[in-house]
Every structure is written in structure tokens, then in C-alpha cells.
Amino acid sequence: MSTSQSPIDAKADEIDDVEEHLTLRKRLWGTLKRDKKSMLGAIVILSFLLVAIFAPYVAPVDPEQEYGIMEPPNTHSETADGEAYHLLGTDSYGYDIFSRIIFGARISLLVALVTVLFAFTTGTAIGLAAGYYGGWIDSLLMRYVDFQWAFPTLILAAGIIAVSGSLGVINVIIAVGVAFIDDFARLVRSEVLSLREKEYVVAARAIGMSDRRIMIKEILPNAVASLIVQVTLMIPIAILAEASLSFLGLGVRPTTPTWGLMLNEGRQFITQAWWLSIFPGFAIMIVVLAFNAFGDGLRDAFDVKEGEVLDR
Amino acid sequence: MSDSSLQSDDGEPLLTVRNLKKHFDTSTGLTDRLLGGGQSVKAVDGVDLTLHEGETLAVVGESGCGKSTLGRAILNLHQPTDGTVRYGGEDITHLSGKEMKPYRQKLQLIFQDPLSSLNPRQTVNEIISAPMEVHGIGDSAADRRERVEELLVQVGLKESHADRYPHQFSGGQQQRVGIARALALEPRVIVADEPVSALDVSVQAQILNLLSELQSSYGLSLLTITHDLSVVSQIADRVAVMYLGEIVEIGPVEQIFERPQHPYTRALLSAVPRIDAADRTDRILLKGSVPSPINPPSGCRFHTRCPEVIPSSAWPGNQSTFREAFRFYNRLLHEELEIDLVRERLENEGRSTDTDTVATQLLDESFQMPIEELPDDVQTVMYEIARHLIEDNREQAIETAQGVLDSPCKQSKPEMQVSGASQASCHLLTAEVTPTISPE
Description:
The complex is a heterodimer.
Chain A: H1 7-15, H2 24-34, H3 36-53, H4 55-58, E1 75-79, E2 82-86, H5 97-133, H6 135-149, H7 153-164, H8 169-195, H9 199-207, H10 211-247, H11 259-267, H12 275-301
Helix pairs in contact in A: 2-3, 2-12, 3-5, 3-12, 5-6, 5-8, 5-10, 5-12, 6-8, 7-8, 8-10, 9-10, 10-11, 10-12, 11-12
Chain B: E1 15-25, H1 30-35, E2 40-51, E3 56-60, H2 67-74, E4 82-87, E5 90-91, H3 97-104, E6 107-110, H4 124-134, H5 141-154, H6 171-183, E7 189-193, H7 201-218, E8 221-226, H8 229-235, E9 238-243, E10 246-252, H9 253-258, H10 263-270, H11 319-333, H12 339-348, H13 355-366, H14 376-390, H15 394-405, H16 408-411, E11 416-419, E12 422-425
Parallel strand pairs in B: 3-8, 3-9, 6-7, 7-8
Antiparallel strand pairs in B: 1-2, 1-4, 4-5, 9-10, 10-12, 11-12
């Protein structure tokens, strides 16, 4: 068969100096190495994740253990089995704030990740179907999304919690998750609208590929870059949403250690004991900033244009 | 492929296209549809074609004439508006996705832009084995991989290329991958949509040779869509010339290249670049732009640009003067005559803008020859038309023009006329009208 091998092609083979194919992972790693800000963000996120996972080992004391109330930072309490050190002080119930922030990371990150995962899955499915099929399916799905988009996220979430009638982690996840569906649906739909006109999609149809396979194997992988960026930008928003709901008293049950709840409880004593609300606030701020820095880095790495993902 | 006569007797042709139409609706929503604001683009408007076992048929035409749409409508990638496509005697025109699947295996497509037709996130192995997976060919991934490597070698690539991504190849190599994908299902018919127009000239010939080679080894029938007549002469057995959604001439390549029947074909052929300047003397330049397929010209669609348009029976002069006047008439019909501009120009030059001056100026600008060369009574008519127009009486102007300028080409659609093995649709070919003047 060497007859049809052209001299040009043959030459290219001899040199074998082909442009390296950069997988998503390689591009990501390259960006992290170049961009110190996103590297810092990644490190902070990673350490918060580790702390959350190993909370019982990392926390100096049990978060449910009561000590003297509103002890300032950097103090000690006498207990039956020795001395307890309060790096960030204790709150109005006498709980150790540092330990509660560590355990709060569990709830906050879990809620944020599961929320975004839920919104991602549902929103992507809606966006794929709407963008790919078009017509009345598109109209129906997107009118729903518009309807939801017109509602402020928090009010919608509060409404969903009110309807569901009880507080708890699951309800917060569903409420915030539903409220985020529209962001993913819109992003995916707009990606699909441009991708479905690509010739490789026509080629896939010419092969006789089923619609489902075209959507999942041909279109979605090409939208994955902007989706990943969107996920990293949505996680901090989810953290803030959970904190806000907790702050409003609509989040998890009052005794659960979460950053939002701690912030709320400290609010009334802000003049006497600033550390009650300042430290949980810092925790929220650091994580949100870290995710944003990381997300910005990803956006550069995947060459996603700024307007393509929805900044809020 | 010596026997390529249209009504061939060697059984049912592999692919038969009858009166195929594809109109695109330009209305965008419900309101448009209710208010009737949408128009339809008649991209393909009544095309008849046959493709026989093992032959190569080329469809040529200017960009925008609907040839790519034709290819996709044949493959049922665009749902045809009307007409039928039969594959081996079976009607495949309105089959659903599922019903179409067995035929997809037999009918494949090669694209113009090789890079955009390959998914950037998939390796060559994934791209070429996908059709086999979809149709359940091969027992395992390893099986299919073996076949992929075989196909790569057949199209002139290496086995090791299977793990590369599309952007790691040159344009010609990418097109080879596209061809390998089309071959993976061992189809009977391949529609090649401008297979080489995106490639370097040096690579074009290689790809065309590869296609002919594969055609003979697989016994393929090729439907090549192209705007490039050199591609036609290189690979095609028969050629169909398309203009504004219609086939105007179809027949064996040698016959059409040597004795084109349709004026449009003649114009196309005269535009082929030649190295020897002496060969170029008969270049026919088409005037005017391609009319919109939303509202195509009546009668013969080529009449607005045809250099050989037939004079109306009322025309006293010769064909070349008629052609000029007819062009003026068409511009009048398409509202391309800008009276206000003429008036403004006269004003700027400080000349009078009374009806007569504007009329003279308009006629001067619209005709490429001195208006005095027209027969006297025609001149009078032209002035009358111009005056009606200036007095904002467009309908009257058109009515007056109709009297002397309605060419038979505009009035009725020409039928396909058989001449030897080829067919063309032109009024010049029918007996009643004598082909008078060829362009100077």
C-alpha cells in the first residue's frame, strides 16, 4: 500500500515531530505551574478538603464540648482531663470556635460539592436536550429555565425550604441545587448550539449514531472545559448560599456547626466578642477566594472566554 | 463506465433521485409564521439524478447553488421538502433515524474541511472505530483496532497514527482519516462534498488519486460535489451542472467538456484557468450577481445572467442589443435602478434634474453601449420606461418594458433536451427557437 503514501506524508513521518497533544490534565498542570495565584488557590482548596475529611483528627477538641462562654482567642480552659487551648476563643455556648470551624468545613464543602454536582447533572441534561433537539423541546425547557432565572437564587432556595417544611443538610442541598440548575442549563445549551453545527456531528449522524450517543460522546466532551470552569466558579457561590441560608436561619439545624450559622450566632454579640463571627467569616472568605483564583486559572488553561461562563 | 447513458438498461441504478426539493424556512418563530414574514430559500428545487454502480458523478456549480444541500438531502441529513431518493430500488426519502440506520452503512459522506469533520477530543482510533461500534461490526475493541490500522494503511497513513489526535496531522492527512472513517463501514456510495477544496493544490491530486484507487478496489460509486472543473475532469465519469438549485445540464464528462449545450456550462468551462493565454480568448464573463434562491427568476433561472438569452419576438434589433436592454429590464424588475442617485449626481454636477435629463443620464449609465445604437423605436420605448420610472410609476414602466423585452427564456421553463448521452435544459435547444448568435 505504499503506493498511495505520498512523499510529503512520508517525510512528515520520518521526522515524527508532531505537535504534542495536550490532554485536559496536562493543560491544567501547565497552568498551575505558570500561574502562582491559581496554584495557591488549589493548595488552599486541597488543604481545606483534607481538613474536612480528617476533621476528627485535626480538631484540637470535640466541637460539642462546652467550656467557658466567649473566651477570647489564645486562652486556656481548665478541664477534667487537663487544659484545653482555644486558638480562636469560644462562642456564646462555650464551644471551641477553631474546632467548630474545622467541622464546619465538612458541612460547607459537602453541601457546596453535592449542590453543584446536582445542579451540574440536571442542568447539563436540560441544556443538552434543549440545545440538541431545538424546537418545542427547547422552548419548553428554556422557558422553565428563564422562569427560574428570574428568581433571585436565595429567595428561590428559601421558598423551596419553606415548601419542604424542615431544616437539614439534604433540604439545603436540594434547595440551592435546584436554584443553580439554570446556570448550567444555559451554559450547556449555548455550547451545544454551536457544537451541533460542527461537521463532526454531521459525520456522526451520517454514520447512523443515535442522538444519545452523539450528545454524550461527540458534543459533551467538547463542552467540558467551560463546564469545569463553571463548576469551580459555582462552588464558592454555593458555599456562600449555604452560609446565607444558615445565617437567615433557613439552613441546617441550629446546633450543627456550619460557618453560616456561627456567623449568625456571633452577630448579636459582635460588640462584646468580635471573634465569634469574624473567624467563621474569614474561613468563608478564604475558601471562596481560593476557588475563584483556581477557577480563573482554569479559565485561562482551557481558553474559555470570559463571557462564556456565567459570572455572578 | 462507457455506458453512462441516462436511461441505461443495466437494471436499477444504485441511487435514483427524482424531483428532489429542499426548501429552508427562514421564519424564525411563531410570530413570523403567523404574519407570514418568513420566506423559503429554495436551495434545491427539483433535481433528478441517477448514480450507477462504480461510477463517479460530479455535481458542479457556483457557491450557493445548493450543491452541498443536495448532497446532504440525498443522505437524509436534511429532510427533503419533496421528491424521492431511492437506494437500490428502495425509497429512503422519509425514513426516521432508526429506519435509516441500515442504509447509513451503505451511504457515507466525506467533508470539505477535514479538521472540523474530526472530533478534536477523540483519537483517530476512536474516530474510525465509532462507525463500526454503532453498527456492531467487530467483536471487541481490539478487533476494531486491527481494522482501523488496516484502513489507515489503505488510505496512506501509518498504523501508529491511530493514537494521534486530529490536530496532529496535516490537512491532507486529516482528509485521509476522514476517508478512512467513511470506508470503515464498506459503503457502496460515498458523497464527497468538496473533498479537496480546503487542501493545498499539491495535496489535492494525491487525495483525488487515493479516491479513484479506493473506488476501484471497493467498487464504490462516488458523488463528488465540487466547484472546481479540474477536479471533475480528473475523477468524474459524468457531470451534472447545477445552477440555483436546478440541474441545467448533465452528461458524460468528455461530451460536456467538448460540446457544452447550456450557456451556463459554456461560461463555467470558459472560466477554467489555462496556462496557454491563447486558449483563453473565448472567456465568457457573466454579468450581474447570482439571484437570490428565495425568489428565483421565472422561466429559465439563468435568464438574468445568460449571455445567449433569446430575444423576444417583438425585438427588432440583434441579440447583443437585446441582451443590454434585457439587463436593464432585469435591473428594473429587481429594483436595482437608483433614480435618486442619478438625480443627486446630476445636482452635484450642477445640471438640470428635469425628467428628460434624468432619463438620458439613467439610460447612459445603464447601457454599456451608446443608446443610439438601439433601433429607433426601441430607443423611444426605453425613454418611455425611464420616464415612467422617474415619475414614480414603476408598474407602468414594467408594463411598457414587457411589451418588447419579454424573452421566451423568462416566460417558460425549458424542458430537459436529450442530445446524445447528455441532457440540458435550455430554450436554445428546442426546435422552434433557432440558436442565433453566439457571444462575440
